[in-house]
């Protein structure tokens, strides 16, 4: 008879090489209380990655994991704390009747600009995937596009490694792994995925009436630049100030909803605006007929959005989670918030103290609607149900 899901997290704030891996793993083992470690994820800063082989051996010795992966991090998250530079964090889960399969992926040119991804496991029975990506060698968008085609609706959560050791950025059982992606495919486990893009919609909804690739020529029948200028002028003073400081655009990904809320938008930056042609360039492919709405971001909005995202995840599970993985942008932390441990602390409070670990990423992966995307200035999470 299978038991409940049990998770644990351990943190070492030091850059002590193998000792830091051992300390974080020992803390996680203590939290499991003798339960089997079916899945273990390790996040290690660059100084500690120099001792990856001995460090991962220390993790294996203390946790005896069935599946083990990890990655290099600028900073790590664990035990409701954020270490923005350095450290090692270890997350471990005993999955009851569920399982986790470790995998490693590589990418190779396939002609005419295409990319072939190798090593993808059988995901037909998977409930969720956690992916850790080497941004120096692996183009993650083709992977996400392939998964969307082959496994529609399968959530993928994770992040792009934000530090690099001499041999690479990713970790597996024997130390540094030369793959482009390592990850875990979870089966028989209920997982709620949360994406907090830290922004809120302002101004009117507008339809794209002329566009090509990632260039919007017209919004609601007018040149895009003109339409956005009019929309910004109609905002209240505080919203206008935020928009002028860094206007974002939210793209609706599911056009079938009767009305759109904050979590229904894929938030992207405006890359360029051409006053002569009236076109704007955004950081995502767009299509004619797609609904967009301006977005603004500040610390207060990001806090509100993170709490709401976690709340939706907990509600989906029906109870506080057994544990969580947190992938937060390296532009958040003290760069965005005045209080320390912001994302980790809010997750800890909103999840009733669920053991969580993660890292500061160079890009975060998570779903908006039924499709997975790479985000920026975002916190993405996987919340694991206790049963």
Which descriptors apply to this entry?
single chain; 387 residues; alpha+beta; six-stranded mixed sheet; 23% helix
Task: Summarize the SSE layout with pairings.
Blueprint: E1 6-12, H1 18-32, E2 39-45, H2 46-49, H3 52-63, E3 68-73, E4 76-78, E5 81-83, E6 88-94, E7 99-109, E8 115-118, E9 128-133, H4 140-150, E10 156-160, E11 170-172, E12 175-177, E13 181-187, E14 191-196, E15 199-212, E16 215-219, E17 222-223, H5 224-233, H6 237-246, E18 248-252, E19 265-274, E20 279-282, E21 291-297, H7 299-317, E22 323-329, H8 342-350, E23 356-361, E24 364-368, E25 371-375, E26 379-384
Parallel strand pairs: 2-3, 9-10, 22-23
Antiparallel strand pairs: 1-6, 2-6, 3-11, 4-5, 4-23, 7-8, 7-13, 9-13, 10-24, 11-12, 14-26, 15-16, 15-21, 16-17, 16-20, 18-19, 18-21, 19-20, 22-26, 24-25
Helix pairs in contact: 1-3, 7-8
């Amino acid at each position: 008879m299978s038991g409940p899901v049990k998770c644990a997290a351990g943190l070492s704030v030091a850059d002590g090489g193998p000792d830091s891996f051992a300390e974080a793993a020992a803390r996680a083992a203590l939290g499991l209380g003798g339960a089997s470690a079916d899945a273990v994820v390790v996040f290690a800063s660059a100084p500690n990655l120099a001792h990856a082989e001995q460090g991962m051996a220390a993790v294996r010795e203390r946790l005896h994991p069935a599946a083990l992966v990890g990655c290099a991090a600028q900073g790590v998250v664990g035990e409701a704390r954020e270490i923005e530079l350095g450290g090692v964090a270890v997350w471990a889960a005993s999955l009851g009747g569920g399982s986790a399969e470790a995998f490693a992926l590589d990418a190779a040119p396939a002609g005419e600009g295409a990319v072939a991804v190798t090593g993808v496991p059988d995901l037909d029975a998977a409930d969720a995937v956690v992916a850790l990506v080497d941004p120096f060698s692996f183009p993650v968008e083709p992977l996400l596009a392939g998964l969307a085609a082959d496994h529609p609706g399968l959530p993928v959560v994770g992040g792009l490694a934000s530090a690099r050791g001499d041999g690479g950025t990713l970790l597996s059982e024997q130390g540094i792994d030369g793959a482009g992606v390592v990850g875990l495919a979870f089966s028989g486990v209920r997982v709620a995925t949360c994406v907090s893009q830290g922004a809120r919609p302002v101004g009117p909804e507008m339809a794209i009436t002329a566009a090509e690739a990632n260039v919007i020529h017209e919004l609601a029948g007018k040149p895009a630049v003109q339409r956005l200028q009019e929309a910004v002028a109609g905002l209240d003073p505080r919203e206008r100030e935020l928009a002028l400081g860094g206007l974002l655009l939210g793209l609706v990904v599911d056009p079938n909803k009767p009305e759109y809320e904050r979590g229904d938008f894929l938030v992207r930056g405006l890359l360029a605006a051409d006053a002569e042609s009236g076109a704007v360039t955004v950081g995502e492919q767009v299509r004619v007929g797609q609904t967009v709405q301006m977005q603004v971001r500040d610390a207060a909005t990001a806090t509100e959005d993170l709490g709401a995202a976690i709340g939706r995840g907990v509600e989906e599970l029906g109870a506080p989670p057994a544990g969580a993985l947190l992938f937060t942008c390296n532009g958040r932390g003290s760069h965005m918030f005045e209080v320390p441990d912001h994302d980790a602390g809010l997750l800890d409070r909103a999840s009733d103290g669920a053991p969580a670990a993660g890292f500061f990423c160079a890009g975060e992966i998570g779903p908006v609607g039924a499709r997975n995307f790479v985000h920026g200035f975002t916190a993405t999470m996987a919340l694991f149900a206790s049963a």
